[in-house]
Amino acid sequence: MIQYGRQSINEDDVAAVAEVLRGDWLTTGPTVTAFEDALAQISGATRCVSVTSGTAALHVAYAAAGVGQGDEVVTTPMTFVATASSAVALGARITFVDVEDDTANIDPAAVEAVVTDDTKVIAGVDYAGHPIEVDALRPVADRVGALLLEDAAHSIGSTYRGRPVGSLADLTTFSFFPTKNMTSAEGGAVATLDADLGQRAHEFHFIGLVRDRDRMRYPDEGPWHQEVHEYGLNYRLPDVLAALGLSQLKRLELFKQRRAEVFARYQAGLADLEGVRLPVQREHVDPIWHLYPLRVLEGRRREVFDKLRANGVGAQVNYMPVYWHPMFEDLGYQRGMCPNAEEFYSQEISLPMHAELTDDQVDHVIDAVRVAVTG
Fold first, then answer.
1. Hey, what CATH topology would domain 11-249 get?
2. Sign of the Cα pseudo-torsion (280, 122, 348, 180, in order)
3. Which residues are identified as catalytic?
4. For residue range 295-327, what is the model confidence (pLDDT) as tens digits?
């Protein structure tokens, strides 16, 4: 079976992890700092806080933004559930808006139509690695005093109008799950250009601990003293995993290049195939492709999906609209809210996309798609 996504691990990665295992710091040590500094450099952020997962990154980012009971978060349904559920965990009220027909990214016009002065955060997702339209979303957020969050779980290494993802929104979240564009096994990060947001993110992921004497309520307690002023959780990424992430970052451009080659091979091999719709890339973005989302038309998605699996192609579907999950259904959300997203879901199949794919494997996938669609 050709896997739809997988990690790319080499001996340098293994050596980097082994070096930390033989050292003094397994967690909260210098490798975490080095990883966060490298992330900031690549993303164009001024502060990066590494965390234990992409879901944790979202939770931390919403907490840093001050999201609390009853605050509105406007987001897309075409994403993994954590984009919304991590805000719900803080008491937020979610407003889902529809996606663009071509990219499946959050539609700025749909956001404009629903935001109010009560909107706390607008959260877009770089679906498949294609960045959201930040320049259209920014004035909408500024008009109502909301923060802009970019869920970049798919897109570390992408650029938008020449600017790296991580430097575009008030808060950006990354995921380093093994199927993503680089990995730390499990892990994620929050990136920001705002010092206050960065500090709030750091403290929330560090159990809320305050170690700055000037901020302490009881600074003369002793040199061991630390205080918790606001609720936080232990979302700290250990040095062992940071070592893997740091090593992987050195090959991010190579991963991006190979994924671009795979994407281009799919585009060329499927260009003349009727009954499908291929993904698009806008001229002003340079994405790192996390997914290759093929759209199968005429209600044949399940049929084609089953045929691909039977032919050794580990296809996947990304994603069921978030509000279709029973958790959100039980909160009163109903199907039919976002027709573009629901149509996209009904058609989408993610073909294998990762840096370890060979040209022969890509060609096998192309042939399998053509047989499944025309057969």
1. Aspartate Aminotransferase; domain 2 (3.40.640)
2. positive
3. 180
4. 999 999 999 999 999 999 999 999 999 999 999
